[in-house]
Amino acid sequence: MTGPIVVGVDGSETAERAAARAKQLAVALGARLHIVSAFDTDRTEVLGSGSDTWIVSDADTTVAIAKQTASALEAPGLTVTYSAARGKPAEAIVAEAERLDAQMIVVGNRGMQGLGRLLGSVANKVAHSAPCDVYIVKTVGSQP
């Protein structure tokens, strides 16, 4: 297997735990690590003050989350890339894994308990539609 390990992040503490585990796996396997963050809307705001104007979009915010996580995970000998993908989180993660011919997707287990278990979690949806292996990190509940 030569493709990267893909991990989805959203800026949450549980996603950061999953990303840290993905880094450990990438280092151990000698794989590249790809961070992906999803955005589901094209919401854009134009902000102005005097003659200055700024355009802020969901895509920009999502790229910033992925970039920040990628920067935090950099390590000697590890190639870390990042992207933002449009779509619902599970769909975006799977699409990126397909696009990159990933060897593994890493996700956290948030949403796999309680009501989230009935409605469907990102991890559950990814596990059922992934084109590669899926590693589900225990990010919620008791930690080992």
UniProtKB/TrEMBL annotation:
Top-rank taxon of the source lineage equals: Bacteria
Pfam families in alphabetical order: Usp (PF00582)
Q: Which residues form the UspA domain?
A: 1-138
Q: Which family does it belong to?
A: Belongs to the universal stress protein A family.
Protein name, as recorded? Universal stress protein UspA
User: Which species is this record about?
Assistant: Sinomonas atrocyanea
